[in-house]
Amino acid sequence: MSTHHSSPDLGALLAAGSVPLLPFGAFEQHGPHLPLSTDTIMARALAERLCPVVDGVLLPAVEYGQTTGNDGFPGTLSLSFDTVRAIAGDLISALHRQGARALVIVNGDFGNRAPLALAARDAKERNGFPVLVLNYPGMTEAFAAIGTSRPAGFGLHHADELETSIVLAVAPEAVDMSRAVAEYPVFPPDFPDAEYGMAELGATGVFGDPTHATAEKGEALLDALTAAAARLIGDFLRLHPQDRTGDRTRD
Ligand SMILES: [Zn+2]
């Protein structure tokens, strides 16, 4: 799906009430077999699938995120917490000025959750602009139904069967299954309340068993995630019907 909208085309879509979908990813280690951009690939894939279901319009993804917990592994390039909050805040303000009815952020990275939640709250307090942040709703249930490996625990799916299956489904050229290895970190007793870097918890950066991954499972997982997210977006848009006053000056 293209994000090459022209100015008049995107303006017309927003004016007609299409809801913009912003994939928010990260550039962080995902073991030896998956690309650093895994979270961006996954968030974009889910946003692409949601667009036709929810009358959405796909925005270009933010390809970096807050992932300092992965700094111990080579290649990871992290934004700071405040930068993620500021990028989201700036795009929210810009969409509000452009007359968008709301924004849905499809978040692909755990470390983005808190700064994106704050950016959404800021927007609501500033001018009532509705922002929904999706953190893969329905993921635990979908994996329980489709996955065949044991999850690492604490709701963590990192470079495991789930993430590897989804990347195999949408970008198979980016996966090297010959390098896929399983690792189950032994979590310290104060995890996850105390903060640990990923490199303290394991050697490979994998949380789970990616060797069970297949593209077919990835398709099924994406279908389940799309259905769960579409239900949430539907509820969200019913709560926030389009304001047709056309007043773009508020901010
Ligand atoms: Zn990931």
What does this structure look like?
The protein is 42% helix and 7% strand. The chain has 251 residues and is an alpha/beta fold. It has a single domain, classed as Creatininase (Rossmann fold). It has a 4-stranded parallel sheet, with helices on both faces. It is globular and about 50 Å long. The mean pLDDT is 94. It binds zinc ion. Residues 30, 38-39, 158, 163 line the site of zinc ion. Its cofactor is Zn(2+). GO terms for molecular function: hydrolase activity, acting on carbon-nitrogen (but not peptide) bonds, in linear amides; metal ion binding. Belongs to the creatininase superfamily. It comes from Nakamurella alba.
Which key features would you list for this structure?
251 residues; alpha/beta; Rossmann fold; four-stranded parallel sheet; 8 helices; 42% helix; binds zinc ion
Question: What is the mean pLDDT?
Answer: 94
Q: Tell me the strand order in the biggest sheet.
A: 2-1-3-4
Radius of gyration based on Cα positions: 18 Å
Helical residues, percent: 40-55%
Report the bound ligands by name, code or SMILES.
zinc ion
Largest sheet: 4 strands, parallel
CATH C-level = Alpha Beta
- The dominant shape is globular
Instruction: Compute the number of structural domains.
Output: 1
CATH architecture: 3-Layer(aba) Sandwich
CATH topology: Rossmann fold
The beta-strand count equals 4
| CATH superfamily annotation | Creatininase
- Would you identify the regions where 5 or more consecutive residues have pLDDT less than 50? none
From the N-terminal CA to the C-terminal CA, the straight-line distance is 31 Å
Order of helices and strands: HEHEHEHEHHHH
**Sheet/helix structural class:** alpha/beta
Q: In percent, how much strand structure appears in the residues?
A: 5-15%
- Discrete helix count: 8
